[in-house]
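Input record, target 12 of the design panel.
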């Protein structure tokens, strides 16, 4: 959604935050230590065939290894087909997970067995094209990050979904975790006092082990692959960005990747593998994100279960709150305030949250008509922020952000 008046939008956000601070949110946190149950408010269009959502997944590479078991585990989902331009790869997924129909091209897939929800786990550069084809065919679409490679293309997809009266959503889905809700309600209750800002980290030394050339090419990069998680979480907690300042660079002009098939490929890096991002959320609230493919991390790559690893810190003038674990794999929330200055850990129950649950999450909402906490508008906003970070790095200027999304994500 494009914001016509940035000042008006952020005045409304500040007013909404003030309203939340004074309308009973403190009572909602009276039982700190338990993770609140995610609440859904608004109704949406449910899938007409009722009992099960029929899902077709396109893109049977590494991400599908996580998505397919998650989808298969849901009693309300019928995974009817899979598709990949490397057909043997799709055939292997079908064999491994008892998927009855296999296709080698999306056109073939759309002419085949009918389904309700297209799950797009193709490479990042292909998302816009596949999403558009799916929406034009009248399918609900869940897209892996990012939904498109430009703000214009992303907005086109959102408008197309509305025209077709179908659902459209994009990863990541951290706003559905119990830890995100706990943090959002803690902020809304004013537990940290006057909010000042936050800092976040998600990086690794992936230039040594990432397996696909696309990570280092246009449409990829550390912002799109890693930083997007922190950007989604921090805008979800602190509100839409007003403007951004960024630095994005290349430390290794050439890398060698070893594909899943064992092929070694030399890649000329032409997008960011090291980035720093500063977000102005308005009214003196700032956040900072560090991300990259050339950052040694003391945890093993993608090990979210290191119990004392803090990846996000949020500061106010009377409290501090830390997310323990990655936002895509949270294990708890640490909180200290003026009233209780000893740092204590809360919300250690993940309630089964997984970063790959987004498609199953929206499928359930198609059945129930419940409001989704994940929206394409939020994904588009994060995309604009990432593009602006790169533009800021090139020009040395602050970049104003025009898109916005429905916020707060967690309603009162």
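The sequence produced for target 12 reads:
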């Amino acid at each position: 959604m494009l914001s016509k008046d940035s000042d008006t939008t952020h005045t409304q956000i500040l007013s909404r935050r003030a309203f939340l601070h004074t309308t009973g949110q403190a009572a909602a946190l009276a039982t700190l230590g338990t993770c609140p149950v995610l609440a859904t408010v608004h109704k949406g269009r449910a899938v007409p065939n009722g009992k099960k959502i029929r899902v077709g997944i396109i893109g049977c590479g590494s991400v599908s290894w996580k998505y397919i078991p998650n989808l298969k585990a849901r009693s309300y989902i019928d995974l009817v087909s899979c598709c990949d331009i490397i057909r043997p790869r799709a055939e292997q997924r079908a064999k491994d997970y008892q998927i009855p129909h296999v296709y080698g091209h999306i056109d073939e897939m759309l002419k085949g067995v009918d389904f309700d929800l297209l799950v797009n786990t193709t490479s990042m550069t292909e998302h816009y094209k596949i999403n558009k084809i799916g929406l034009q065919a009248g399918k609900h679409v869940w897209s892996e990050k990012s939904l498109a490679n430009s703000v214009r293309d992303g907005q086109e997809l959102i408008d197309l979904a509305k025209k077709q009266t179908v659902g459209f959503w994009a990863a990541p889905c951290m706003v559905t975790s119990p830890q995100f809700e706990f943090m959002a309600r803690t902020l809304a209750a004013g537990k940290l006092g006057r909010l000042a800002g936050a800092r976040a980290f998600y990086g690794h030394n992936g230039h040594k082990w990432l397996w696909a050339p696309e990570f280092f090419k246009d449409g990829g990069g550390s912002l799109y692959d890693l930083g997007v998680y922190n950007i989604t979480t921090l805008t979800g907690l602190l509100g839409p960005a007003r403007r951004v300042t960024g630095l994005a660079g290349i430390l290794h002009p050439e890398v060698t990747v070893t594909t899943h098939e064992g092929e070694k490929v030399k890649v000329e890096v032409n997008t960011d593998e090291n980035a720093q991002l500063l977000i102005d959320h308005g009214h003196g609230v700032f956040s900072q994100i560090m991300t990259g493919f050339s950052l040694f991390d003391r945890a093993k790559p993608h090990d979210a279960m290191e119990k004392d690893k803090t990846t996000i810190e949020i500061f106010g003038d009377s409290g501090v709150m830390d997310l323990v674990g990655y936002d895509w794999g949270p294990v708890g929330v640490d909180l200290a305030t003026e009233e209780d200055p000893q740092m204590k850990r809360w919300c250690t129950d993940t309630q089964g949250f997984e970063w790959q649950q987004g498609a199953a999450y929206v499928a359930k909402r198609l059945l129930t008509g419940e409001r989704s906490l994940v929206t394409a508008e939020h994904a588009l906003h994060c995309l604009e922020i990432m593009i602006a970070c790169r533009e800021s790095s090139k020009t040395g200027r602050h970049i104003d952000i025009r898109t916005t999304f429905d916020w707060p994500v967690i309603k009162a």
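Confidence is low (pLDDT under 50) at residues 3-34, 36-46.
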